[in-house]
Amino acid sequence: HENLHNSVDDALLLKRKSEEVLFQLNGRCIYLVGMMGSGKSTVGKILAEVLGYSFFDSDKLVEQAVGMPSVAQIFKVHSEAFFRDNESSVLRDLSSMRRLVVATGGGAVIRPVNWKNMKKGLSVWLDVPLEALARRIAKVGTASRPLLDQPSGDPYTMAFSKLSMLAEQRGDAYANADVRVSLEEIASKLGHDDVSKLTPIDIALEIFVALQ
């Protein structure tokens, strides 16, 4: 009963916050940026639902445009550059629309042209500690993550070292976002010792607070 009560409270709070933010958004799109596995799609769907926006995952749109089942396959058959070109054209098309929440691919931030398009809306960086990302990715496997897929070795160690390298390459680029939402800071505010204890609703609430 207590859990149900909490989730009803959270849902009402989320709805109230979304109404406060809607006025300020004035129809502008929200772009979620961050490393792979940071929860952009999960959180993005919640944001879209309570705002009455449409949700899009830019990776999925590229897959549809190219006619391939996965990003991993596009990298394998074509190349990363081919994928990035298609990603840029998807983000350009989305930027002409309104009332969308868009979960972007982890590497979308490396091209200045993508920022030019995302700046037509509001961008939110989901900043997740690398250890938590590596744990999450090691648990589900790296087959769907072409930049992480390693033939052998301990999954956590491999994921962590590759993520560290990617974070170093992209760290400054993520900081271009209009708003940074740190999962570590939310966890400490809520008295959790680990970001994995946060729910997507906790993160969505914090995004609304940051956007006000």
TrEMBL record:
It catalyses: shikimate + ATP = 3-phosphoshikimate + ADP + H(+). The keyword Amino-acid biosynthesis applies. Its cofactor is Mg(2+). Keywords: Amino-acid biosynthesis, Aromatic amino acid biosynthesis, ATP-binding, Chloroplast, Kinase, Magnesium, Metal-binding, Nucleotide-binding, Plastid, Transferase, Transit peptide. It is found in: Plastid, Chloroplast. One of its GO terms (cellular component) is chloroplast. One of its GO terms (biological process) is shikimate metabolic process. It comes from the Eukaryota. Its main location: plastid. Coiled coil: none annotated. Its EC number is 2.7.1.71. Pathway: Metabolic intermediate biosynthesis; chorismate biosynthesis; chorismate from D-erythrose 4-phosphate and phosphoenolpyruvate: step 5/7. One of its GO terms (molecular function) is metal ion binding. The keyword ATP-binding applies. Pfam families: SKI. Catalyzes the specific phosphorylation of the 3-hydroxyl group of shikimic acid using ATP as a cosubstrate. Belongs to the shikimate kinase family. This is shikimate kinase. The lineage of its organism: Eukaryota, Viridiplantae, Streptophyta, Embryophyta, Tracheophyta.
